[in-house]
Amino acid sequence: MATRKLSLATIRRTVSALPGVEEGTSYGTPAWRYKGKLLARLHQDGRSVVLKVGNETRDHLLQAGSDTFFITDHYVSYPMVLARVDRLSAVDLKKLLLRAIETTQR
């Protein structure tokens, strides 16, 4: 994954370019849904984004040993991964969001 700090404006532009995705809030932070299902949200730490990528993809990303992806105790039982915005590019974010859309369609 490319190293690049994503601003909230860049995240919003990347997400809004995907058809059918709507912005709202979750836990008081900006969040994006596809057909009413949560895809992603800005984590309350302001330094990471939570992405619904499915358990298999999440496990793969975590096993890669990257400093980009992690989970907190809260997300252990959910098919979600956290990504540090200072280590994620807009291109990589778009790929993960497309995976999130695919995951919500299952």
TrEMBL record:
A Pfam family this chain is assigned to: YjbR
Highest taxon listed in the record's lineage: Bacteria
UniProt-listed InterPro entries: YjbR/MT2646/Rv2570-like
Protein name as catalogued: MmcQ/YjbR family DNA-binding protein
Organism per entry: Reyranella soli
Lineage: Bacteria, Pseudomonadati, Pseudomonadota, Alphaproteobacteria, Hyphomicrobiales
